Amino acid sequence: MLHFKKILTIKESSDQKDYTKYLVNFFRSHPSPSQQEIQDLANKLGIEVDKFEIMIYSLLGMVIGGIGKHQGANSDSYDANQLAKGIDIEMEHTDFDWIAKEIAKDHLEEDPMYYDHLEEMENKHADNSDIDAPKDENK
Fold first, then answer.
1. pLDDT of res. 16
2. Does residue 86 register a pLDDT over 50?
3. From CA 106, how far away is CA 70, in angstroms rounded?
4. pLDDT 10s digits, 87-112
5. DSSP 29-94
6. Which terminus of the chain has a lower count of CB atoms within 10 Å, N or C?
7. What gap in Å lies between CA 43 and CA 59, rounded to an integer?
């Protein structure tokens, strides 16, 4: 959510208020909000409705256009197996495959073998936790 903070921060005199959690929670509970629900939330937060709508549209544009390190790079730029693994893993965090794909592409931008390395790390952790587990003396 760090990328969203710039857009979701409104200057109020010398204060800055972060509305990220409000928008995230709102859209989780209202995936297809009515205009009245948008207006009600803006009023609750003390934001002019027009400014609030601009924040929402900017956020949506960033999500659709690619907000991360990959900046909308073509899927062919990534190893197909790594991208498939990544989408599968990132679906744990979202109900939308296109968002999972965006997240996976960001990770692959950092490390082209990110999901193989993640799997290795998880396997190593699982192996180590077996060593630390108490032995069953009844066996």
1. 40
2. yes
3. 6
4. 999 988 877 787 788 889 989 999 99
5. H-SS--HHHHHHHHHHHT--HHHHHHHHHHHHHHHHH--STTTT--GGGS-HHHHHHHHHHHTTS-
6. C
7. 19
